What does this fold into?
Amino acid sequence: MNQRETEGTIIKGYSGFYYVLAGGRLYTCSLRGKFRLKGDDRVFLPGDQVRICVMEGDKGVIEGVLPRRNELLRPPVANVDQVLLVFALAAPDPDFVLVDRLLVLAAHAGIQPVLVWNKADIASPERVAQVQALYRDISIAQFVLSARQGENLEGLKGLLEDRISVVAGPSGAGKSTLLNALAPGLSLKTGEVSAKIGRGRHTTRHVELIPLASGALVADTPGFSTLYLPDISPQDLPELFPEMVPHLGSCRFASCLHKTEPDCAVIEAVEAGQIHRQRYDHYLMFLNELIERERQAPKGR
Ligand code: GDP
Ligand code: ZN
It folds into this structure.
């Protein structure tokens, strides 16, 4: 038998088999016995990089897995490069507390956030200017587009190339519409994805990475959204606000939490208009949450 080894990415696992994309071809792979011994066929996630031995045709055997860079719980995907935070500019209006919460979560998880402002076709110019002003200074990619009209998708498509991306954002923002626009032929029903979020935990549904042209892999199941900030200590919160970082060394007190302390460089930057006040207000909101939680469970959980 003609055998050769190659490397690829798991895009889906299903009843004991893994579908591995390698060199533009999809292989149906089983596991080498040594992995099966562990009795857990969830050791591998979509996104895992694996070495496979190609048997005849499109069949293969997984011989080894490369170390993971990161791992998301919801959706369960490994080696995530970026999370697309999808918000509608209108209908529904963006919830900026949620935007900032998700930005903090992404920064904490070490995953690059990308802001996708959808429904540009029905947005007021004032709203577009507002979101651009809010997030211009934190050097993350932002796209203003219309998923439904297929307008301005090119820049985002470019950013998806050769990366693994997941989609997050509130219900009704247009996540399924966006996935459909990016992967024509996928035809997710609009509304379906959001319904899945609610029930996701209890279904046996398998997350799948959708291969787009140009080597992009996008998770078909949104996730990531949680209203709960993970175990971040109050002292670590400022670093998760990129626009605060340049000021952090200049406060009078090394332990400054940038609330009411004298000679606080962050507060001065807010007053000088270098840090957007709304972002700072949300920082204070999250800080109080974290302080309150620490008070209730002082030893951490
Ligand atoms: P999801 O809950 O985030 O998956 O949102 P859906 O994709 O189901 O979209 C929610 C609603 O917004 C649907 O009625 C879509 O047709 C609509 N929608 C999605 N994208 C756009 C857009 O770019 N412009 C407008 N005007 N409506 C959109
Ligand atoms: Zn300070």
Notes: The longest strand covers residues 4-14. Residues 277-296 form the longest helix (20 residues). DSSP finds eight helices and 13 strands in the chain. Residues 251, 256, 258, 261, 264-266 surround zinc ion (ligand 2) (CB under 6 Å).
